[in-house]
Design brief:
Layout (H helix, E strand, L loop, with lengths): L1 E7 L4 H8 L4 H9 L3 H22 L9 E2 L5 E2 L6 E7 L2 E7 L4 E7 L6 H8 L2 H9 L2 H22 L9 E5 L5 E5 L9 E6 L5 E8 L1
Helix pairs in contact: 2-3, 5-6
Length: 211
């Protein structure tokens, strides 16, 4: 079983100050290092909310949450029975949490000005690229983001980071079910559940969970 939660990053100044007190000293220092106040606000809200969610899930205090990081920068908590992942875009953050299985989540704001077709041509497989360009023009941007979030969520779940983007291929059957092919995995033993997320208007997200 896994849980997906979300929060808005647009908070009042008083609420941001309250959430800031939840952060560790190094997290507060990181928030202070942001050049733009908007980015600092989003970081404070997203990180403090993550601490609060984990504390409730693990029945401990927010101060007891101590993050460690993999070589690729993925956060985790040593000696505590949970796996989690976070994604935020524009003014929303989403969180995925489970007891032990690997889990990844990614979300993108559809109003972004990214050039999906060019990115797909460079980083997607030929089959993925053909899916994108064969989609009707009004839906093409959303199709690109859909595939992108599946790939990102999987890479975040496995802790490999964006460097593995080109080795991951997303397939979709006639019923609209998505599967993931990992061309760098010579002996795939793990199967993955791909869950499309219903977040808010203007956002597309995916959660990928080890089965």
């Amino acid at each position: 079983m896994f849980y997906v939660l979300q929060t808005t990053l647009d908070k009042t100044r008083a609420e941001i100050e309250r959430l800031r007190t939840i952060l560790s000293a190094d997290e507060q220092a990181r928030a202070d290092a942001f050049h733009f106040e908007r980015d600092a606000r989003r970081y404070i809200v997203a990180r403090a909310t993550l601490r609060s969610i984990l504390a409730q899930y693990l029945t401990c205090t927010t101060r007891e949450i101590i993050f460690s990081y993999t070589a690729a920068g993925k956060p985790h908590i040593d000696h505590m029975p949970c796996a989690f992942n976070v994604s935020h875009s524009h003014e929303i953050a989403v969180y995925a949490i489970t007891r032990k299985n690997q889990i990844g989540i990614d979300m993108e704001y559809t109003g972004s000005a990214i050039q999906g077709e060019k990115i797909a041509q460079r980083y997607f497989s030929q089959r993925e690229y053909e899916v994108v360009v064969s989609t009707p023009p009004l839906e093409r941007h959303h199709m690109f983001i859909r595939i992108w979030t599946i790939k990102e969520a999987y890479l975040k779940a496995t802790g490999r980071g964006i460097a593995g983007l080109e080795s991951i291929e997303v397939m979709c059957d006639k019923e609209g079910k998505y599967t993931i092919l990992d061309h760098d995995d010579d002996s795939p033993r793990t199967t993955w559940f791909v869950q499309q997320l219903h977040i808010a208007a203007g956002y597309i997200g995916t959660c990928v969970v080890e089965c």
